[in-house]
Amino acid sequence: MAPRYAPSLRSRLAPLLLLLQIGFIVIYAVYIEVLTHLLSLYYLLSFAEFQDVNVMVILGFGFLGTFLVRYGYSATGFNLLVAVMATQWAVILNGIESWYYRGKIRADLRSLVVAEMCAASALISIGALLGKTNPVHLVLIALLEVSGFVLNQWLLQTLLKVPAANSIMLLHIFGAFFGLALTWILFRKGSLQPFEKEKFDRQAGLFSMMASGIVQLEIQVQTLNYFNSVLVDHRSPWRKLGAVCSTYLALAVSAVTAAAVSMLSSPKGKLNPVHMQSFILAGGVAVGVSMSAVHQPWEAMTIGFTAAVLSTIVSRYLKTHMLLAFECHDTSALLSTHGLPGLLGWLAHLLLQIKACDDPTVAVRFAVFHICSLLITISLSLSMGIITGLLLKWNFWRPPQDNKCFDDQAFWEVGNQNFVFLKTNVELNIILSLHRKDQIS
């Protein structure tokens, strides 16, 4: 029997990318203006934070997906493609209000950072579909999800008066539930048994673990520091320092706790590399959602501890049940890494805010608005995920066959895989060295 080759995307992907990029260029030429007056100088001082967010979005999310033995090219390459397309689209959508009142969309470093965080919500979602889609699917997912996330921000800020930074940090919850809805709609019957190529070896797992341990720990601290600092007046450096300390402590406690719980829950008493690679980030996710209410180090450490315990246990015992009972094949443990820690951070924010409030009436009012913000976010993310999934079920987009899932050769001209991982390892070390030099300078 002749081998089944993956369907060519030449007639789908190339026209889609060229059409979108030309359209973006035209819109930017006509409607985008870069702020150059004195009011934007403050954002120039935040270039280091912009750089950290950019490295996390481009490298962090990409390298975390390299645990699949034959999907390293796609995990990093498609992550870059989705990130840059989604960021360009998010700048336009976030500037619609400015365009409506002033006729121009104003761009600066802050607008780029906000756009990249909107893109990060899409990168979180595609983790659930890692290896089971093609780049056409991913680009469409990014455009539709960023549209839904920007709409969610507008609803929260307009109807419930939620601060901008708080609505942005709900990206973990929005991205997780959007991705779960997608993987439910796009479920493949072949997922009931492990895919032939859905596996990782020591080399790929070590590289992905290094990405989470080195890149993510540093970048998460710097990234969450910037977004937490948005809530604080830039003339209050001691508050910024508190945000840095809380974020680092939550991540550190999360890493230690994930290792302990992983070993305790293992039948053989061994560490699970998937747990170590993913769930050390659970504390960073949870404390990022709740940071505006975190004022003491022990609060951040408690949140990090609880997030790691919850994520590790749920991943160990719930992932298989979700596949069998709800037909959700979550490749990257999306629910455990982002969804549940995000919900935990939301709950911690609610409890800490109520605890700090002296007026019961104000506390009840805050609780009602806080609960409504979560309900709107989950409802909109699930609705947009279902709509997007139904659109992607159309065979016109040429989804890969089951035997071509989790395989770079379906989309890339691949060479020696060992050489690729070795080369990328060296490149990562160079990037980290340059990054540290920039931070020191």
TrEMBL record:
InterPro entries: Ammonium/urea_transptr, NH4_transpt_AmtB-like_dom, RhesusRHD. It is a multi-pass membrane protein. The chain crosses the membrane at residues 12-32, 53-73, 79-100, 112-130, 136-156, 168-187, 241-264, 276-294, 300-319, 331-354, 366-392. One of its GO terms (biological process) is ammonium homeostasis. One of its GO terms (molecular function) is ammonium channel activity. GO terms for cellular component: plasma membrane. Pfam families: Ammonium_transp. Keywords: Membrane, Transmembrane, Transmembrane helix. Belongs to the ammonium transporter (TC 2.A.49) family. Rh subfamily. This is Rh blood group, D antigen. The lineage of its organism: Eukaryota, Metazoa, Chordata, Craniata, Vertebrata.
